Amino acid sequence: MAGFDLIWFGILKTIVMETGLIHPPVGLNISVIKNIPPDIPVADIIWGLLTSWC
């Protein structure tokens, strides 16, 4: 169509959308995870998220 593969476009779009959901200021996934165990601080959730990428 426009000179790019639609499969790779879909993969890239999914990665970008997931990054937007976990990254502040929106952080929708972080707020959902925070409401599951309310006794765990947000800093621990973010630290776990950052260390899981490595």
Round the mean pLDDT to the nearest integer and report it. Answer: 81
Largest sheet: none
Shape: elongated
Low-confidence stretches: none
**How many β-strand runs?**
0
Rg, rounded, reads: 15 Å
- Along the chain, the helix and strand elements come as HHH
Share of helix, binned: 55-70%
**Class by SSE composition:** mainly alpha
Termini Cα gap = 36 Å
Tally of helical runs:
3
Strand-residue proportion? under 5%
Word description of this protein:
With 54 residues, the chain is mostly helical. The protein has a domain at 27-54. 67% of the residues lie in helices and 0% in strands. The chain has three helices and no strands. The protein has helices at residues 6-22, 28-35, 42-52. It starts with 5 loop residues before the first helix and ends with a helix. The model has no long low-confidence stretch (mean pLDDT 81).
Describe the secondary structure blueprint for this structure.
Blueprint: H1 6-22, H2 28-35, H3 42-52
Structural features:
54 residues
Short overview:
It contains 3 helices and no strands. It is mainly α. The protein has a domain at 27-54.
